[in-house]
Amino acid sequence: MESEIGSIIPGLPDDLGLRCLAKMSHGYHGLLETVSKRWRDLIHSSDYAAFKAREGWCGDWLFVLTDGSSTEWVAYDPQADTWHPLPKISTAHPECEHFGFSCVCVCSRLLVIGGSYKPLEPEFPNQRPFISNDVMQFDPYKKQWTSIASMRTPRSHFACSVIGGKVYVAGGRNSSCTRGLALAEVYDPLTDKWEELPPMPNPLMDCLGLSYKGKFHVLSDQVGLPHQTTSEVFSPLDGTWCTVEDVWPFSRAMQFAVQVIGDDRVYTAVDWGESLIKTRDGEKGDWHDVGSVPSVVLPGHSRPLEAFGYGFATLRCELYILGGKALKWEESPGPGRFDIVKLGLARVCDPSVRPLRWRETRPMCLSARGSIIGCASMEEKSSFCSR
């Protein structure tokens, strides 16, 4: 192949050969790089990245960070049915655990926003975590992380969602407001700037955000419990907040428990007693059971196990259950014991097909098994913004 005067694909003009390779999704890149030195150099070149960016061919990505993979995210390509690690994030706190952040995909970029940094081995037992306003961005074309404009307010455990190509954040906590923030702001990726929004009527911490029917909903971790049935809702059209009475089932054990397909098809995973998938009646606001979260069958174990700490995500109108852990009973001399098993399973189903039919995709990388602490999906057409 390399003998034909360095042509990309023998018998084709180089511009057409470049177009053919650029259409291949990211999960195939490792295989393509083994074909020839010319292909390897091309896939790593700025011309290749620029061509894909110009065409908007970012591909479909499912980004996951587990408690066992430190700062190394992994990505799933559903077309190639392949997981692969991303470059490690270069941060100012490399020896710290990062938690309480938000992650979203906007304009074909993955953003990791804010959060807390806690030393893995603190010098003092009661040392407080450092709360950040930093924002890191992963470019799927160049396959690299860069630092972009920081939030105006450092915050951790806050609500975040994308509406109309902009990133909205609200609530959370920081060192000066440990009981909750009312402050909100919005990020425009086209200008790389954050702007303040009117504050929420009520401060909220440990909250979750979602885009529902064109509005930014901020749910506290108490939503769904008998004494807490309100949520804060921001309308980007008129720039105002309102407090609404609503009942959202919410799993306190999971960081990402509510997903929206389209604009109003809402699904949530709840794990109160048993793990269930629920969906919302858009007209009445009632919730209905769709099916169960699939149990885990381990080799050599006599019964199915319930997973916990798993991720819940959507990609291309399908639901994903990712990773997590399970308690496995081990027989041993004496009373026996439970072992915690880190899971790398990835299960997917089409929620419009009842009953739910879960299928297993390729498991996650060995280095990225365990509880999910970050999860976001990117779709080639719906997430691409024309510049």
Can you describe this structure?
This protein has 387 residues and is mainly beta. The protein has helices at residues 14-22, 29-32, 37-43, 46-55; strands at residues 61-66, 74-77, 82-85, 96-99, 102-106, 109-119, 130-139, 144-148, 159-163, 166-170, 184-188, 193-197, 207-212, 215-220, 230-235, 240-245, 258-261, 265-270, 276-280, 287-292, 307-308, 311-315, 318-322, 325-330, 337-342, 346-349, 359-360, 372-378. A hairpin with a 6-residue loop joins β19 (276-280) and β20 (287-292). The longest helix has 10 residues, at 46-55. The radius of gyration is 22 Å and the shape is globular. The protein starts with 13 loop residues before the first helix and ends in a 9-residue tail after the last strand.
Summary of the model, kept short:
The protein has helices at residues 14-22, 29-32, 37-43, 46-55, and strands at 61-66, 74-77, 82-85, 96-99, 102-106, 109-119, 130-139, 144-148, 159-163, 166-170, 184-188, 193-197, 207-212, 215-220, 230-235, 240-245, 258-261, 265-270, 276-280, 287-292, 307-308, 311-315, 318-322, 325-330, 337-342, 346-349, 359-360, 372-378. The protein has 387 residues and is mainly beta. It is globular and about 65 Å long.
